[in-house]
Every structure is written in structure tokens, then in C-alpha cells.
Specification:
With 250 residues, the protein is α+β, with helices and mostly antiparallel strands. 44% of the residues lie in helices and 21% in strands. β4 and β5 form a beta hairpin. α4 runs antiparallel to α9. It is globular.
């Protein structure tokens, strides 16, 4: 049951009675660009349902090098391990798009989760989509060229902020893609020469959405299909059959 004023899709999908029980324990908070919500090994004290913010899930290598493995926006929840009975974060959760989110204390979330079959169902479905995104990102980082990966990442961000303009620095992008800054500079320059994006003073403008989708690796469509499949289940359009995608090489 969707309600317009609720920006987060997971919350909007809950029946009114279930959402009302949650609402009294939710608080709206502002998430700032670059803010760290969790570090690996830390206890998860709050969960977050992003509204117009975006949170990157990063895995750390040798305790200092970071690589993005997941991206959470209005379609999901930050703190999924709690829904699996785990209260420790395996990743760094870093705000890469500032904005608002609905926050709840972990103890309140556990109580609400145990009493709501609808919330359990929505989070099981979302966990499947997030796992698909994480596994596809791992393959993407290994096999696809930086330019195609950058296009994929920009499109994933666009879909979550619902805008073709957002703030990003080359240093931040280098961490997200697991490459050196010079690699991001070359990839962004190539996309600019093709007039797909404009990058100036830390702000990305997508100029040609269809062209950028054509430039992205197949991983973008695969993850997008998984999200569409979850929406189809929610709306009753899909009869339990998983999506299939044919990867194309980049």
C-alpha cells in the first residue's frame, strides 16, 4: 500500500497499521555528505531508511583502502544485518549523498521486526536485491573497464536521487570504484568528450541519459532488473520467477 508523503519505498509499502506502529519510533534526521554511520565491527545502534539521501557500503582492505560494494537510497534500509539477527556491521556505511532519512534505534527496530510479518517480508525481498547488487558489483570491479563502471555508478546514483545532477569529487569516486584518482579523471574525461556528462567543481551533470546507459556495463541493467522484480512482487505483477539478464561485455 503506497502513500505519497512517505519517501522511502520500504516504509511506503507497509500497510497503514504496520507503518503507524513504526512511525512513533522513527525520527527524521539530516545525513551530511561524508558522514560515517558505521565502521566495520561496530555495533549497529540505529537503522536508517533514506528519503533523499544515499549511503555507500564500503569494504576495507588492509584497514585503510575502501571499495564500494553496495549503494542504498530511498529503495532500502541501512542496517540490514539487524534483520538477520546480527548487530555488528561488516562494512563502513558512508553518506555519499546528503539529505534526510528516517532513523530508528536498533532495539526498537528488533521489536517492530519481530511483530510485523509485512516488514519481515519487505526486508527479505530487499536483502535479496542488496545481495544481488553486492555480488554483481564484485564481478563488475574485477572484469569491467573503469569508464563503463563509472557510467554504471552514475546511473545508480541518478536513480536514487531522481536527478541528473549531484555532487561528487574525483577523490570520492576513486574510493567508490577502487581505482586511483587518475583513473577516474581519464574515465570522466572520456564520458565528457562523448557529451554524456559535464563534470565541474565537484558536480556531475548527466547530459545524455540514454547515451550514458549505453556506455554503462551490463551490471547496471542486471541490478536494475532485480529492483524491478522486487517492485513487481510487491505490486503483484510477478509470480515468483527471478529476473534473467544477458550480460554484454565492456
Amino acid at each position: 500500500m503506497n502513500r505519497g508523503p512517505i519517501a522511502n519505498s520500504l516504509l511506503a509499502a507497509l500497510p497503514r497499521k504496520d507503518y503507524s506502529r513504526l512511525r512513533s519510533r522513527l525520527e527524521q534526521v539530516e545525513l551530511d555528505f561524508g558522514e560515517v554511520l558505521y565502521e566495520p565491527g561496530e555495533t549497529i545502534r540505529h537503522i536508517y531508511f533514506p528519503s533523499d539521501s544515499i549511503v555507500s557500503l564500503l569494504t576495507l582492505v588492509d584497514h585503510h583502502q575502501a571499495l564500494e560494494v553496495g549503494l542504498v537510497g530511498r529503495e532500502g534500509m541501512v542496517g540490514i544485518p539487524l534483520a538477520l539477527g546480527i548487530d555488528v556491521s561488516p562494512v563502513r556505511a558512508l553518506v555519499q549523498g546528503g539529505g534526510t532519512a528516517m532513523r530508528m534505534e536498533s532495539s526498537a527496530f528488533r521489536r517492530a521486526f519481530s511483530h510485523s510479518a509485512h516488514l519481515q517480508r519487505e526486508l527479505r525481498r530487499y536483502t535479496h536485491v542488496l545481495m544481488a547488487q553486492i555480488t554483481q558489483t564484485a564481478a563488475c570491479n574485477r572484469f569491467h573497464v573503469v569508464e563503463a563502471r563509472l557510467a554504471r555508478w552514475l546511473l545508480m546514483t541518478r536513480d536514487r536521487v531522481q536527478s541528473g545532477q549531484f555532487r561528487l569529487t574525483q577523490e570520492f569516486l576513486a574510493h567508490m570504484l577502487g581505482v586511483r584518482r587518475v583513473g577516474v579523471t581519464k574515465a570522466a574525461g572520456a564520458l565528457q568528450r562523448r557529451k554524456l556528462i559535464r563534470y565541474s567543481r565537484g558536480t556531475i551533470h548527466i547530459l545524455d541519459h540514454a547515451g550514458l546507459e549505453a556506455a554503462a556495463c551490463s551490471c547496471y541493467e542486471i541490478v536494475k532488473d532485480a529492483r524491478a522484480f522486487m517492485s513487481g512482487l510487491r505490486d503483484g505483477r510477478t509470480a515468483g520467477r527471478a529476473p534473467t539478464s544477458t550480460a554484454r561485455k565492456k
